[in-house]
Amino acid sequence: MIENKQSVTVTVAGSYQPAVVNLKQGVPAEVTFVRTSDQGCLDIVHSNELAFETALPLNQPQTVTVPTDQVGDFEFSCGMDMFSGRVVIS
Question: pTM, whole model, 2 decimals?
Fold first, then answer.
């Protein structure tokens, strides 16, 4: 069976859960962030390394496309860079 897309959901509630997202290289991927708490500065998520930034309205899933062309360990964080998570592509 050939996988045609990877989808992962990250819950944003005072931190990122899960904090590490594992993806396979070369398979298109989406990460959906769902903010369930208005705590802290988690109303924005961004990653310079993965070239995305998106606002996270409360209880509204926001999906970003993650490039999987390169193997590596890529960080994402809140707008103030106080909370972070990682995307690991292998």
Answer: 0.93
